[in-house]
């Protein structure tokens, strides 16, 4: 088991090294084979590890002493348990499919860039695995940072485009702001408990040592980290911009894996969060606000990837909402199903973009269902799943969240239901505008329309099947007794709160209500958008289309004031302060050098005179002043 | 003892070799082989195989440190021969005699590394100095060379006088030439002894070119043929240091409080004058002369603290400093003149050499991962451990920062300036050798025990 974990971790890294170092030498076939093969190895070993976990439960393995300072030490340790094994499967499994898809999607790139792309992709998987496998906060943080780095590299993959570079930079900076919170939380823990290991921190003795203030502060700080990675208010604006990267990257990083890191973090620390009601309330508020805000923005976007990006932000909002309610299992469940259908939707959009020759604006599409049959049907399944229509997987995970909301308060339930309805609306708006009606693009594009090759459609089909059936791992007890396998599986790790049990009839009612409403919304969308015509948006629509002007707000307030401060620092402190001192020292030395040089007159007599004078000075010092 | 006699004999042999050997390359080969033999003889000596059994009446004592230092000196001379022996041909016709003089100097170095009597010290110093006067003036047709030689001789004679006076006073107050603590303890209160010690301090400061007795160094180093400057500024200087430290650590520790402050002031002055003056120099050769003065300041710190750090530090310092300086000089010798402009765009024509030179310069500046950094660190640590002179450490670090300026100037022009002149021609083996030296500098900077393990 110890070695298996190492193989899972190291295989993608080896792939990264090979592709990264030899990208100029290897052919594209070998690069793609190497990259996909390494992930496949990881995936197969993950399956083995998962089956072992099913039987015997989790374990922690220490490999060596990573940092040792006095009595404080941080081992390089990996932790495998129910939670991390699920993430392992998602990362390597979905990751593998996306790698395969990429091999075809990126084939137009030159060989060296192709190698660069896959080496980044492999490196990303490596860091993500490190993130979920780390047995303490520091190892996790390495993965956390690495994931941020890879995301930067991949968003800016087409580095010749300045806009894309700005997007990459924005993602990096936003992530860094969150990382600061994470770091402070780690230091706080070290200061209080002298350790970073999960197993020790979450034990009762350690928790007893922490005051309520400590726990609230630490959980809040960790949550700040999570808002950065998982794109929550106020740090979510990087995610839509991150669509600058190649579409498979969006699928892998900005839908299926990296953005779930924050959810993983909170779920991992559920023991702490359960002790911090204030933090939980804040998380509920932020999660809900993010879910609805992003959904309203998605209503009015016209870029196919932007819509999906905002939908990701919105879905992540749902997950955090669940985390805040203490429904950790529901959140993890939604992570799983979301990974499948969001990867599916992104890859599907990739297929559409591919067919359209790079066009991303849905206003210029339409009627694609005739030409892109597989893409259309799989995309349709993805939409049904994300909208939450039974029996698709999204229904079960969203239902779990809705039920736990209702258990808390009906008001919360209706708000989150609103979010779910918006989701259904914008997703089907996207579907209908893109695939129904008549084609609105150019003649050339119409000629060019074609279904993607099998290497790309096969992952779509697999993901579509998974989106359809993944719900079975968490069928609620009302429908099937003992159907909620996921909660049972995660029970050793996640503290389950059984206080608010709803009656069966209430649960049926809720399910029925949400399903009927969602279907209603879909019908409305069908009526509105089956024959779409480009129109000017006005009023509140304009407000949504411009993303609530959040970017502008950030620019006006934070970015501008920082820039102003920087200018002051540059003009006053730097130029007339530090520079003046530094240059002054330099000038002084130069001046001294010029003067001192004159001492070297070249006259032997002078030399001897100086020497003798110095000797006399020493003697007089020794014999007159000392005694 | 082996090496002492072997070098003396080899010196005489080299003198007459030109009668037998007609070709310069043969003479050079003889010198190199002879040097190798000397090295082996010395190593054998240190492990107990003595070729000669001579009663030296307790005037010399070869301890492990002495053997080790002699090995280092021979090794450095060996590198010097490999790097620059060919360049000596350009100086004059008396090719074999230059080698003879160098062997005599080595002979003197062995004496000063192992003396226990002031007489031997004096003898050694003179055996080193007199051939140096000749080597400095060996470029007979060059007026600068002649001037340097004369200046060196005059000032050298002056310092010899001071040294003799010091020895005389020492003898007068203690009744012995023996360099031992007990001799000094018996006469601590005598002012004559103190004056003697101070005079010895001055004359030794002169030999290691410490301020304010450094005046000869820039003129002589600048005027002497570059090949010999390289030898003088490294191996010979190191020997003077060893003599200095040996003398003061063996005999004068009982009067430590009387002279240590003076040494500290001398160090501070040396660092100041060396570093600050080097900043303005336009000639690389002259800049290196001042840099060598500045480096003396650091090496002198061994006198402030006699502990393991200083012993290991001074040896590491000598190796790091000698190799780096010789490496830079060996390239400088091949250039038309020694102005900074000669290095313009050097990296484009000779990338390998430029990188090696960069390593040497970084080492001299004391940048981490080079031996130069560690040796400076050891010296500062030694002083720190002795507990006094915190002000000196801070000052030394500041001065090291100044030194970065003039070392980096060469790096800067090598890499960032366009060249207009045609470049130097070097053999492939020279490139290999210089690269190997650069690697040694880096290896010692990471793993100094590689060298220091021999000291145990």
Low-confidence stretches of chain A: none
Give the strand order of the largest sheet of chain A, numbering strands 1, 2, ... along the chain: 1-2
What proportion of the residues of chain A is helical, as a percent range? over 70%
Distance between the termini of chain B: 20 Å
Largest interface (C-beta under 8 Å)? A-B, 23 and 27 residues
Estimate the mean pLDDT confidence of chain A: 88
Span between N and C termini of chain A?
A: 79 Å
- Percent of residues in helices of chain B comes to over 70%
Integer count of domains of chain B? 1
The major sheet of chain A is characterized as: 2 strands, antiparallel
Number of strands of chain B: 0
* Category by helix and strand content of chain B: mainly alpha
| Topology of chain B as a string of helices (H) and strands (E) | HHHHHHHHHHHHHHHHHHH
> What's the overall geometry of chain A?
globular
What would your notes on this structure say?
The complex is a heterodimer of chains A (627) and B (456). Chain A is mainly α. Chain A is 74% helix and 3% strand. A two-stranded antiparallel ribbon of chain A has the order 1-2. In chain A, strand 1 and strand 2 form a beta hairpin. In chain A, helix 14 runs parallel beside helix 19. The longest helix of chain A has 48 residues. The model of chain A has no long low-confidence stretch (mean pLDDT 88). Chain B is mainly α and 456 residues long. Chain B has one domain. Helices cover 75% and strands 0% of the residues of chain B. In chain B, helix 9 runs antiparallel to helix 10 and helix 11 runs antiparallel to helix 12. The longest helix of chain B is centred in the middle third of the chain and has 32 residues. In chain B, 58% of the residues are buried. Chains A and B meet through helix 25 and helix 26 of A and helix 6, helix 8, helix 9 and helix 11 of B.
């Amino acid at each position: 088991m110890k070695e298996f974990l190492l193989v899972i971790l190291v295989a993608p890294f080896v792939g990264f090294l090979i592709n990264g170092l030899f990208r100029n030498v290897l052919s594209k076939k070998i690069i793609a084979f190497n990259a996909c093969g390494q992930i496949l190895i990881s995936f197969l070993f993950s399956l083995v590890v998962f089956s072992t976990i099913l039987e015997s439960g989790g374990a922690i393995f220490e490999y060596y002493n990573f940092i040792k300072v006095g009595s404080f030490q941080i081992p390089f340790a990996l932790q495998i348990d129910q939670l991390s094994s699920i993430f392992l499967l998602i990362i390597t499994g979905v990751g593998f499919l996306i790698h395969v898809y990429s091999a075809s999607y990126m084939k137009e790139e030159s060989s060296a860039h192709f190698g660069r792309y896959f080496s980044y992709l492999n490196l990303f998987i490596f860091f993500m695995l490190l993130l979920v496998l780390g047995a303490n906060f520091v190892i996790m943080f390495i993965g956390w940072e690495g994931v941020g780095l890879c995301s930067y590299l991949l968003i800016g993959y087409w580095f010749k485009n300045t806009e894309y570079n700005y997007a990459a930079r924005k993602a990096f900076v936003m992530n860094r702001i969150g990382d600061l919170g994470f770091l402070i939380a780690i230091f706080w823990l070290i200061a209080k408990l002298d350790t970073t290991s999960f197993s020790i921190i979450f034990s009762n003795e350690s928790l007893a040592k922490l005051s309520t203030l400590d726990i609230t502060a630490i959980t809040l700080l960790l949550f700040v980290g999570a808002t950065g990675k998982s794109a929550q208010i106020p740090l979510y604006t990087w995610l839509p911009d991150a669509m600058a990267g190649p579409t498979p990257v969006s699928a892998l990083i900005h839908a299926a894996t990296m953005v779930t890191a924050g959810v993983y973090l909170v779920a991992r620390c559920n023991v702490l969060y359960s002790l911090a009601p204030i933090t939980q309330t804040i998380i509920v508020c932020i999660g809900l606000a993010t879910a609805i805000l992003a959904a309203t923005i998605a209503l009015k976007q016209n870029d196919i990837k932007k819509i999906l990006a905002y939908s990701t932000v919105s879905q992540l909002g749902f997950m955090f909402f669940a985390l805040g309610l203490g429904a950790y299992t529901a959140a993890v469940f939604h992570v799983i199903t979301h990974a499948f259908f969001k990867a599916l939707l992104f890859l599907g959009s990739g297929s559409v973009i591919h067919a359209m020759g790079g066009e991303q604006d849905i206003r210029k599409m339409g009627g694609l269902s005739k030409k892109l049959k597989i893409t259309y049907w799989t995309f349709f399944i993805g939409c049904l799943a994300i909208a939450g229509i039974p029996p698709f997987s999204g229904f079960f995970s969203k239902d779990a969240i809705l039920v736990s909301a209702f258990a808390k308060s009906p008001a919360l339930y209706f708000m989150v239901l609103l979010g779910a309805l918006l989701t259904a609306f914008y997703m089907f708006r996207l579907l209908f505008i893109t695939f129904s009606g008549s084609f609105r693009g150019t003649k050339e594009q119409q000629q060019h329309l074609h279904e993607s090759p099998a290497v790309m459609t096969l992952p779509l089909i697999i993901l579509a099947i998974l989106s359809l059936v993944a719900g079975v791992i968490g069928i609620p007890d009302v429908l099937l007794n003992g159907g909620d396998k996921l909660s049972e599986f995660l029970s050793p790790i996640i503290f389950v709160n059984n206080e608010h049990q709803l009656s069966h009839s209430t649960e049926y009612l809720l399910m029925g209500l949400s399903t009927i409403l969602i279907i209603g919304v879909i019908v409305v969308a069908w009526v509105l958008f089956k024959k779409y015509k480009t129109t000017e948006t006005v009023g509140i629509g304009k407000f949504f289309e411009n993303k609530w002007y959040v970017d502008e707000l950030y620019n006006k307030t934070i970015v501008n004031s920082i820039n102003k401060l920087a200018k002051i620092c540059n003009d006053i402190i730097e130029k007339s302060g530090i520079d003046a001192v530094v240059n002054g020292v330099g000038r002084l030395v130069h001046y001294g050098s010029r003067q001192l040089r004159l001492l070297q007159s070249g006259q032997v007599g002078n030399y001897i005179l100086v020497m003798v004078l110095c000797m006399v000075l020493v003697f007089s010092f020794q014999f007159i002043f000392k005694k | 003892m082996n090496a002492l006699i072997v070098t003396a004999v080899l010196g005489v042999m080299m003198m007459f070799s030109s009668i037998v050997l007609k070709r310069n390359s043969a003479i050079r080969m003889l010198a190199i082989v002879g040097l190798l033999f000397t090295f082996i003889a010395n190593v054998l000596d240190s492990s107990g195989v003595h070729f000669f059994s001579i009663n030296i009446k307790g005037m010399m004592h070869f301890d492990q440190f002495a053997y080790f230092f002699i090995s280092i000196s021979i090794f450095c001379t060996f590198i010097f021969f490999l790097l620059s022996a060919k360049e000596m041909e350009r100086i004059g016709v008396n090719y074999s005699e230059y080698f003879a003089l160098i062997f005599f100097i080595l002979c003197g170095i062995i004496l000063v590394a192992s003396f226990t009597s002031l007489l031997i010290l004096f003898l050694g110093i003179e055996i080193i100095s007199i051939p140096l006067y000749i080597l400095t003036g060996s470029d007979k047709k060059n007026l600068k060379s002649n001037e340097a030689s004369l200046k060196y001789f005059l000032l050298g004679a002056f310092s010899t006088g001071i040294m003799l006076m010091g020895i005389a006073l020492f003898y007068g107050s203690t009744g012995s030439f023996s360099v031992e603590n007990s001799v000094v303890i018996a006469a601590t209160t005598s002012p004559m002894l103190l004056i003697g010690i101070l005079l010895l301090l001055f004359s030794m400061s002169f030999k290691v070119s410490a301020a304010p007795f450094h005046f000869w160094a820039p003129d002589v180093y600048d005027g002497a043929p570059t090949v010999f400057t390289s030898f003088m500024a490294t191996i010979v200087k190191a020997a003077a240091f060893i003599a200095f430290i040996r003398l003061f650590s063996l005999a004068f520790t009982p009067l430590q409080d009387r002279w240590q402050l003076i040494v500290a002031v001398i160090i501070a002055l040396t660092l100041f004058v060396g570093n600050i003056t080097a900043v303005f120099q336009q000639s690389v050769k002259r800049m290196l002369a001042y840099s060598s003065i500045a480096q003396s300041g650091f090496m002198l710190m061994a006198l402030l603290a006699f502990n393991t750090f200083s012993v290991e530090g001074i040896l590491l310092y000598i190796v790091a400093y000698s190799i780096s300086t010789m490496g830079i000089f060996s390239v400088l010798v091949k250039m038309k003149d020694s102005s900074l402009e000669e290095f313009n765009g050097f990296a484009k024509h000779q990338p390998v050499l430029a990188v090696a030179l960069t390593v040497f310069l970084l080492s001299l500046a004391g940048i981490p991962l080079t031996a130069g950094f560690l040796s400076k660190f050891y010296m500062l640590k030694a002083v720190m451990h002795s507990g006094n002179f915190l002000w000196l450490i801070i000052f030394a670090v500041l001065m090291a920062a100044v030194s970065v300026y003039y070392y980096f100037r060469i790096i800067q022009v090598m890499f960032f300036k366009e060249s207009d002149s045609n470049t130097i021609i070097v053999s492939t083996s020279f490139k290999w050798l210089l690269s190997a030296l650069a690697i040694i500098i880096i290896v010692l900077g990471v793993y100094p025990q590689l060298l220091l393990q021999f000291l145990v």
